[in-house]
UniProtKB/TrEMBL annotation:
<dbReference type="GO" id="GO:0070179">
    <property type="term" value="P:D-serine biosynthetic process"/>
</dbReference>
<keyword id="KW-0460">Magnesium</keyword>
<dbReference type="Pfam" id="PF00291">
    <property type="entry name" value="PALP"/>
</dbReference>
<dbReference type="GO" id="GO:0030378">
    <property type="term" value="F:serine racemase activity"/>
</dbReference>
<dbReference type="GO" id="GO:0000287">
    <property type="term" value="F:magnesium ion binding"/>
</dbReference>
<keyword id="KW-0663">Pyridoxal phosphate</keyword>
<dbReference type="GO" id="GO:0030170">
    <property type="term" value="F:pyridoxal phosphate binding"/>
</dbReference>
<dbReference type="GO" id="GO:0018114">
    <property type="term" value="F:threonine racemase activity"/>
</dbReference>
<dbReference type="InterPro" id="IPR036052">
    <property type="entry name" value="TrpB-like_PALP_sf"/>
</dbReference>
<dbReference type="InterPro" id="IPR001926">
    <property type="entry name" value="TrpB-like_PALP"/>
</dbReference>
<feature type="domain" description="Tryptophan synthase beta chain-like PALP">
    <location>
        <begin position="25"/>
        <end position="309"/>
    </location>
</feature>
<dbReference type="GO" id="GO:0005524">
    <property type="term" value="F:ATP binding"/>
</dbReference>
<protein>
    <submittedName>
        <fullName>Pyridoxal-phosphate dependent enzyme</fullName>
    </submittedName>
</protein>
<keyword id="KW-0456">Lyase</keyword>
<dbReference type="GO" id="GO:0003941">
    <property type="term" value="F:L-serine ammonia-lyase activity"/>
</dbReference>
<comment type="similarity">
    <text>Belongs to the serine/threonine dehydratase family.</text>
</comment>
<dbReference type="InterPro" id="IPR000634">
    <property type="entry name" value="Ser/Thr_deHydtase_PyrdxlP-BS"/>
</dbReference>
Amino acid sequence: MSDSDRAIPDFAAIEQAVRRLEGLAHRTPILTSAYFDQRTGAELFFKCENFQKVGAFKFRGACNAIAALTDQQGRRGVVTHSSGNHGQAVALAARLKGYPATVVMPDNAARVKIEAVRDYGAEIVFCEPNTPARAAAVERVLAERGGVFIPPYDHSDVIAGQGTAARELLEDCPGLDVVIAPVGGGGLISGTAIAVKHLKPDCRVIAAEPANADDAARSFRSGKIEPVASTTTIADGLRTSLGELTFAVIRDHVDDVVTVSETAIIDAMRQVWERMKIVIEPSCAVPLAALLEGKIEVTGQRVGIIVTGGNVDLDAMGTLLARI
């Protein structure tokens, strides 16, 4: 990556991302729920990125990063690694620009996600299901074929692209007191914090993650990046450690990082399915779970929640339903 890719983006970069994404990404709707307002004592506004292209916010960051490439760079191809939403996002964003894409995926990735990446036109290179194997496979692809690496979160244009969701949220729902988003690698919460603190500095920005993958909370408290110690969480999208860029933004612009139990995540997801009639994946139930567990004081406040995605693996639905 270039030095500019390793720089922390500012709000101007998010505004540039808005222009790049026009006509490519959806402006997703914001839903409300009298039921959840009553449960939490607050006014909740759900920014529904489960209705985004590829079914997740990840499309914003991947599309912005790929749209930022010169045509000469893009024609060399884009390369990434992912077991899920980011891979789909890169595959679709590359197809829309007419660029070839290669996605390194673990050989135990869900069949539905493998098929989606292929359907979006990317070539898949399989590897063993661990971080070193992913990195080695990416390096091998780049050495053999060339191309531009688009990482899942620790990249300036990816972070800026993710920040466009919060910009839309504040534009459509002025006067928010709190914005909450889940945190895994930190791309979304970083872009969210940059956007919110520029547009409404007194609005609190809070990250939420599973207690079973609490590296962001530990990093926030210690002041240094703490690796994931455990990944035994149903919220599979939040099992990643923070990157250098995302940690720096969280350290400087996020007000708090809270953790929630597995029971609360599952219960929040089920309640959204039943009460709001929308499909969300476990990772995106984490912010609501934090409210329902009382981890964030929001009584009488206006609260924005980034609903990150709705890509539930239907092959695993029986097992999932058995847990709730």
